[in-house]
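We modelled each protein-ligand pair independently. The example shown here corresponds to the flavin mononucleotide entry; the chain sequence is given first, followed by the ligand as SMILES.
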Amino acid sequence: MNSLIQDIATSTVYAFVELFVFALILLIGVGLITVLFMYVVDKTQTKHAIRRNYPVIGRFRYLFEELGEYFRQYFFAMDREEMPFNRSQRSWVYRAAKGVDTTTAFGSTRDIRGVGNVFFVSTPYPTLETDAVESAVVTIGPLAKTPYEAKSLFNISGMSYGAISKPAVRALSNGARMAGCWMNTGEGGLSPFHLEGGADIVFQIGTAKYGVRDEHGALSDEKLRAVAAHDQVKMFELKISQGAKPGKGGILPAAKVSKEIAEIRGIPAGESSISPNRHPEIDSIPALLDMIEHIRSVTGKPAGFKMVVGGYEWMDKLCRTIVERGIDRAPDFITIDSSDGGTGAAPPALMDYMGLPLSESLPAVANKLREYGLKERIKLIASGN
Ligand SMILES: Cc1cc2nc3c(=O)[nH]c(=O)nc-3n(C[C@H](O)[C@H](O)[C@H](O)COP(=O)(O)O)c2cc1C
């Protein structure tokens, strides 16, 4: 009986070993055939030079390139190394958002010796809770039918619905209401999600005039009036240029142009939406100032423009023309964007090399406005750093 059990056990073990060896040979065989197949495909294809020169092994390059981003982030990048936000800043934001302790020990790890660093002036007598006061209200566009009383010095700069998602627009509009600041729509038009939170809104008019365009892509006064009819919409900002892509219009790939986004923007769904490099009807300073006056008179609300500064000569000409035309007709505000400003999509060459950073342009523009006596009349708004 015992020897029978032993025989059965031995033959079962043999069967398993055979099965294992067979599976192993099969696996190696399939592996070899796959490698051979990849080799032939890589050697004969004409799209990727790396794969043709280094068949099979060249494929790992794409994998490592993909993974490299994560490896660098977690293992190799120093706390202050990444741009535009480094690990130190990100972890501060994560902790603050979760309401956990944001304090750190020892000194700053930021390199404070570099040129162009921004510092805030400290007071010898820090405020106590009892000294705290609301920041002074800034009146923008005192000559518009409905001037805007801006309550917050810090606000949310333009990011279109489409470039950012629905939950992001919702979160920002609710956050803006809670913080008592305004939210700029960006060039993608006004969505119900911007209004939902109840915050003040600045409506941006980009070069494609999304949300306020007629069937030919020109500014529609009727649509402009309809947007201005929302109490929440407080001001209108004409975008001349943006730090991330001076001289280039907005880019929204076809995949992002859903039916809803197409309706909000006034464009066909499922087609890439490329806005013109500039407003076709604005090719001079008087044309720019006329357009801003027109927007203010149609909407009854303050109107200004946004740009990234390239050179200062143009600012001189602009200020001179404004003074000649009379400061009542001046733009109510100018938004200066920094060359390092963010975007939803832009060519890297424009991001990296065009326009001046804010640390240089903001003081220069402020001085220009002061020089021409326009500093009080035209409010300066800044974005980027
Ligand atoms: C996702 C995204 C979308 C943006 N869309 C717009 C836009 O539609 N219009 C615009 O003028 N600027 C746009 N910007 C640029 C910002 O308004 C702002 O000028 C820039 O990011 C620098 O300011 P910040 O420091 O407040 O981000 C966008 C930025 C990001 C990150």
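The longest strand covers residues 233-239.
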